[in-house]
Design a protein that fits this description.
This protein has 4 helices and 25 strands. It is mainly β and 350 residues long. The protein has one domain (2-344): Glycosyl hydrolase domain, family 43 (Tachylectin-2, Chain A, 5 Propeller), CATH 2.115.10.20. Strands 11, 12, 13, 14, 15, 16 and 17 form a 7-stranded mixed sheet that branches. A 5-stranded mixed sheet has the order 2-6-5-4-3. Strand 19 (253-262) and strand 20 form a beta hairpin. It starts with a helix and ends in a 6-residue tail after the last strand.
Length: 350
């Protein structure tokens, strides 16, 4: 049984991998800008002003920053869509952004498995196509009954943003297929042909740790044998998850953001990991980004800075994150200063 095998791996690594990090916060990021829902005007939709815009995926294309924010227009049902926004990165960095910024809705719930929302995208560019991994918050139907489930969803667009395909990942091993109650917080590391190396976070029996795996893109299937936990929650945390897309540093080093949810105050605090092209954990930091002050600490879900975009621009690292589930924050640090905070852990497990 796939779930039982994954549970045993998880329990084993919860014992072996703990102790790598400390509950220390050293926030090294400069706050460059915040964009709230009032700073956007949505084209092509009857309602032009969302009530919340947050948790954006991001990609750098020449001198422009492509943003894929989670957008909410409905207060009571909290149903999310995924938008598209394009800004000049130099306008962001020199504080000359003009608002309102035009946005459009790129994707909205259209399937049962995302009926309650399309959430928290992570963007990846591959040979002329744009890929988004996101959370499909929805239902599955069994014997005329609806049951809640969050799936790891995938969508592909061509260079003109024409939708090519859409679906969600399953886990398979032999003739068995398994879909966790929740799978989210995922990012591509590399893609070669049909093979994709992923960072992902399936919920296994109520626990949330960070995994790596190999998947086939042709049928959106994760090979269950390749799933391995590589980063786990520490004793002071409720859970951990991957926060951002990956950023390539060298031929075999990829930087990715992660978050830990703190037991004592339920806050989201963020750090970084370096992984190999196969998803092996090479280095990890303590918390380097944490919500500060009224703007970041107070919102529909307070005390949160959450992914989803990570961009390397010249000597800078830009974290484009959701702020307490209502706005977008742009956080900038020198890449070298982030790398100085990394602790190399390859060979930690014996």
């Amino acid at each position: 049984m796939i779930e039982e095998k994954l549970y045993r791996k998880q329990e084993n690594m919860l014992r072996k991998l703990r102790g790598v990090r400390k509950p220390l916060v050293e926030d090294i990021f400069k706050r460059v800008a915040y964009l709230g829902p009032e700073d956007f005007k949505v084209a092509g939709y009857k309602r032009t002003k969302p009530v919340a815009v947050f948790n954006p995926g991001a990609l750098l294309h020449n001198d422009r920053l492509l943003l894929f924010p989670r957008m909410i227009f409905d207060y009571y049902k909290y149903v999310s869509s995924i938008g598209f926004v394009e800004i000049k990165i130099d306008d962001l960095l020199d504080n000359s952004l003009e608002t309102p910024i035009e946005a459009r809705i790129l994707m909205w719930p259209r399937r049962l498995w995302e009926f309650l929302g399309s959430e928290d995208p992570r963007a990846f560019y591959n040979k002329g196509s744009y890929y988004l991994l996101y959370t499909g918050k929805g239902f599955y139907l069994d014997d005329r009954n609806y049951y809640r489930r969050d799936v790891l969803a995938f969508v592909e667009y061509d260079s003109s943003w024409k939708l090519l395909r859409k679906g969600y990942f399953t886990i398979s091993e032999g003739n068995e297929t398994f879909i966790p109650q929740s799978n989210k917080d995922s990012a591509f590391i590399k893609i070669e042909g049909d093979k994709a190396v992923l960072l992902t976070r399936p919920e296994i029996r109520g626990k949330h740790v960070c995994w790596r795996c190999v998947a086939r893109l042709s049928d959106l299937t994760i090979d269950g044998e390749t799933l391995e936990p590589i980063l786990v929650y520490e004793e002071w945390e409720l859970k951990v998850g991957w926060s951002t897309n990956t950023v390539k540093l060298s031929s075999n080093e990829y930087l990715v953001g992660w978050h830990g949810v703190i037991l004592t105050d339920y806050a989201y605090r963020d750090g970084f990991a370096i992984v190999s092209e196969e998803g092996e954990l090479l280095a990890v930091s303590n918390y380097l980004l944490s919500p500060q002050g009224l703007t970041e600490e107070y919102g529909d879900r307070s005390l949160v800075i959450f992914g989803d975009g990570l961009v390397k621009y010249k000597e800078l690292l830009i974290w484009v994150g959701g702020v307490s589930d209502y706005a977008i924050g742009f956080f900038v640090a020198e890449l070298d200063k982030v790398l100085e905070k990394m602790r190399w852990v390859k060979g930690h497990v014996t």
